[in-house]
Structures are given as C-alpha cells and as structure tokens.
Amino acid sequence: MKKLSLLVVALLLLSLSLVAKAPDIVVVKGEGIYENTLFAVEKMGGMQRFVQPGQKVGLLVNSDFKEYGAYVNPDIVIAVLKMIFDAGVSDVVFLQPVSEEYWKKSNLAESHWDIISKTRGIDANKFPAQFSEEYFVKIENVENAKAINFELEIVKEFFDVDVFINIPIAKHHATTVLTNAMKNLMGLNTRASNVKFHLNGPSRNDPDFIAQCIVDLNLLRKADLIISDMTNVIKTNGPGGPGEIISPMKIVAGRDAVAIDKYCAQELGFFIEDVLTVQKGFEAGLGKIDLNQLNIVEFEN
Amino acid sequence: MRVTLFLILLLTVFSLSSQTSKEILPNSGWQEGWQKGEVQFYKGDDLFFLINGGADLYMEYGFVDVAAADYVHSSLGKLYVEIYKMENEKAAFGIFSMSKASSLVKIAPSPWIIMADKFLHIWKGSYYITISGADFNKAGFSIDYLMLMSLITDKIKEENILPETFTKYEKEGCIYDFAYIMGPLALNNVYSFGFQDIFNVESAVMIDTGVVKIIEFEYSNVQKCEETYRNVSDFMMRTNRFSSYSSEDNTLFSVTDRNGKILIISLKENRIIVEIS
Predict the structure, then answer these.
(1) Which pLDDT value is given to residue B247?
(2) Burial state string for A226-254 with b = 16 or more CB within 10 A and e = fewer than 16
(3) CB-CB neighbors (< 8 A) of A194 in chain B
(4) pTM of this structure
(5) What is the CATH number of domain A24-300?
C-alpha cells in the first residue's frame, strides 16, 4: 500500500514537472502550415492539455476578409479541428460564423469535410451582427473596465463553451497598429458595440480609447489556447488590405494574449510603443510583457 | 432668358451634387439576364455596418454615402458593386490610392481604374467604386463586366481632378507607387511615425520611386507648417524610435529609423518634405 502511494506521488510529481516544463509560447516556422499547426500544439503539450473528451469548444477565427494576408489561413483552422475532434470533443462552435467560401481557400477542405461539417456557427454573429436575445447577451458592467462604460452586446455562447480557442491573424491595423490575439475578441461583439469602441472616445477613432476598450473586453474571459497566424500577412493598409504582404511563415501558439501580441508585433517590425493594447493589457493583468520571463521555444521545419 | 439659363444651370449643378450613390447603381436588365439584388445604402457613421474593419479610414477622408448591390446571372455568376460617394474628388482619389495592385489604367481625364485579382477599383470625380467577383474564364463575362463599369461611370458626370502636389510628381515620372493622404490613419498605412499625429496631417502625397519614398505634407498656411516642422524636429530629436539626429539649419534635418532607413526632412514654405531611403 505504501509502495503504491509512493508510485502515485511520483507519477503526480512527474506529470506536474511535465506541465511546468511546457513552453509559454511555441513558434514554428516553415512552409507546411497545416503540419506546423499540429506541431506547435504538440509542443505546447498536445491538444489533450487544453480540451477533454465530451467538452464543448468555441473557436473565434478571423476569417471574414477577402484579401490574401488579411484572413487566417484556413489550413490552420482545419488542423485545429482535427486535433480537437481527435481529442473527443462533443461540440465545436464557431463563435463568429465561417463561410463556405472561406473553406474553398484551402486545398485541405475537401479531404477534411467530415470534420468541418460536424461544426456549427453562430450565424446571428455574421457581420454586421445585430443583437437578438437568443444569441447575444447584454453586459452592463465589465468588472475593472477603464473605458467600457456602456452596455456591451456579446455572443452568448462565449460564456457557455468549456474551452475557448482564439485563432487570430497577426497583421497591420490602421488604428491599433497590430490586430492579433487581443483585438480578435471584437469579433464577439455586435456591430453596435464595436462602433462604440470607435466613436465613444474623447475623439473619433481615438487610439488610446480603442486600445483600452479592447483590453476591457479581454477581461471577460481569457483564451484557453491562442494560435496566431503569422505566415503570410499584411504589414500595411490593414485590416482589410490590400497591403504589403510579408511572409514570416510562423505559427505562434500559447495562452498569454499580451505576450503573443508583443512577440508578433516585434516580429512584424511594429514599434511596441505604438501597440497600446500590449502595455494596457499588461497593466490589466491579462499577461506578461517581459518576453525574457517566458519560455519561448522556436522551431524551424 | 438669361435668368432661365442660369436657373437651369443652377438646377443641373444642384442635382449633380445632390446625386447619391444609390442613383448610380444600374437596375436589373442593364444587360440580358442580370438581376439586381437588394440594395444596401448607408450614410455617415452607418458605414461601420457595411465595412468590417477600415471604415474609419473612409471617415478620415470624408465619406458621404455608399450603395452596394449584388448582380446575379443564372449562367455567368455574380458581381458585387459598391459605390462610395466621398466629400470631394481628392477624398475619392485618396481612398482609391489605398487600393494597391499591380496594374493601373488611366483613361484621360477619367476614370482611373486599378485591376486586381477579381476586383476593379475605379475612381471618377468624387466617387470610388469597386466591382468584385470577376470570373474572366467564363465566356461573355468580360464584356458584361466592362459594360457594367461603363454604365456606372457614365452616370457620374464629374471628372478627375488631381491634387497639385501629385501632378507635380506625375510630370516628373518614375512613380512606382503612390498614395494621397488626408489624415493620420492613412499616413500610418504608408509609414508609421507613431500613433500621435505629430505632422498634424491636412494632406500629403506619398510617392515611391522604387529607390526613395517621398512624403510631401501640405498645410493651409505657412505658420502652421513651420510650427509643425519645429515640433516634428523636436520629437525626432528626443524620441528613441529615431537616432543620429543631425540638423543642417532651421529647414533641414536627418534621422535614422530603427530599420536603418535614413529620413531627410525639409521645410519649404507651406510644405514639409520627408525623403526615406
């Protein structure tokens, strides 16, 4: 009996040490976007670290742009779907719907249609989303918010899913300079709420106010996993493009939205002082700003 | 008689200026088989409900209204048209200049057209138009596509008036890329000086010759220009985003950015000229 207890303790310590050793951010560079996404999550500890059998998973993908380099490469999303279904999840919901046209941009869509077709989307959150009692919830007060002093209208299922996976693209944005993990959460808002971010500040499109609103929005729930597309992205004329496309060819995975945004901003050559969400996100306790404190592991495939 | 002519002229001018983008959209049957879908029409701040990301840039240039509609053909497919009415020709030219693509077709004096992958971007007068969904592989599509473009541009009676600063560079030739800027958001799209509007942008042209990028800012008066120049000089001397500050006199200085590019900034009457190489 004593030996068994010791074995259990040893196994527990071993598993704890494995968790402790898991990197904070994994970066995989290379051409195979689908394979590199699988590899990145594997190096983060595997999808089973983030999802459990029978769970309900919510995905938020920045897919709703036409120009190349302005939307998440669909191969990344297909890789995520493969991993979460392999992990035995019961329900996968796109918190912002993904169109059929989007899947057509991937050569892998046809061969993975069996898993794509198992997903569902919140069609009511299709741009320009309007509030409805069935699909949205009104939040009158965001705790600790500094800028959002108005009623927010957010996709209801964001709060219902067991696991939230955020899949942004790291690219230029004329007002916020970078749009990536933190800003992607604006995809959960009705259009009316998003317009308030732009117009309710001290001046129209006030960069400081918008950045603070984004940070406030992120206080509602942190992502359980972030997989950021930094493969082929626009560095100018964002968020819609067309703009100068650069190709770092990197998949960036982690859980810390502030750190991931800072890492990507630096990699894209943006001045971190200009990406106001990073400093504000750090001040709000959303993540770490000193990348030297983090275990960032980079691979090249 | 003179009074009547004057009134007719006045009414014509008024009807042109009060024309909305909605009135320019062709109706169903503009060519056999094409059916017009539901028209979306937005004015002012409601533009945010049409554009997902980037509406703020249109606002900065000066947006009036937009009309958008699908045109569906049973065998040729679908076309989608957006017609933006901007406050004036310069605003329309500015937003058009942000539509980067490899080929620009200039029909003198108008319209100007940028052909992109499955997109046409058109500038005519105070209107900026996009037509998307082109499938040139389908027989008959190209002709209908061009006919639709022609129907739209013919309804716009204005001509293209270029900003003088741009014309000056155009005459010199060697324009690889260009942009017309009317605010800090557009400036951020061509070069980032930080989120603060240190140049107090009124208007500017960006000309990329392939060797050097020139941004020429124009101000409504010399005093404002000189004050802005002094503030910019002071900012660049103190900030850590630029280094190697060197000033020749009160009208010229240079700095190096973090990417190793040299910026030469000069003051000429009501203009500040930034050369980046």
Answers:
(1) 94
(2) bbbbbbbbbbbbbbbbbbbbbebbbbbbb
(3) 48
(4) 0.87
(5) 3.40.50.11440
Q: Token pair 């991937």 is at which residue?
A: A106
Confidence at B103, pLDDT banded by 50, 70, 90: low
Q: How confident is the model at residue B137 (pLDDT cuts 50, 70, 90)?
A: low
The three-class DSSP label of residue B130 is strand
- Spatial separation of the C-alpha atoms in residues B193 and B271, rounded to whole Å: 17
C-alpha span between A65 and B275 (Å, rounded): 33
What residues does each domain of chain A span?
A: 24-300
Tell whether the model's pLDDT for residue A258 goes beyond 80: yes
Distance in Å, alpha carbon of B118 to nearest chain A alpha carbon: 11
Chain B residue with minimal CA distance to A129? B49
Q: What is the mean pLDDT of chain B?
A: 88
Does pLDDT of B7 surpass 50? no
**Count of positions (residues) in chain B:** 277
Task: Mutate one of B63, B189, B195 to test the A interface: name it (highest A CB count within 10 A).
Answer: B195
Question: What ipTM was assigned to the predicted interfaces of this complex?
Answer: 0.81
Q: Is B243 on the interface with A (CB under 8 A)?
A: no
Bridge partners of A172, per DSSP, are A178
Q: Is residue B200 within 8 angstroms of chain A, CB to CB?
A: no
Highest-pLDDT range among A101-110, B29-38, B95-104: A101-110
Question: What percentage of chain A reaches a pLDDT higher than 90?
Answer: 87
Shortest alpha-carbon distance between residue B48 and chain A (Å): 7
Q: Is A194 touching B (CB cutoff 8 A)?
A: yes
By the CB < 8 Å criterion, does B116 face chain A?
Answer: yes
A173 in contact with B at a CB cutoff of 8 Å? Answer: yes
Q: Is the pLDDT of residue A15 over 70?
A: no
Which residues are within 8 A (CB) of A186 and not within 5 positions of it... i.e. 6 or more apart?
A: A194, A197, A214, A217
DSSP H helical ranges for chain A: 2-21, 33-43, 74-86, 100-103, 113-116, 191-199, 207-218, 257-267, 276-283
Rounded average pLDDT over A66-80: 96
Terminal C-alpha separation, chain B: 61
User: What φ, ψ does residue B66 adopt, rounded to 5°?
Assistant: -145, 140
Contacts of B43 (CB under 8 A, 6+ apart): B64, B65
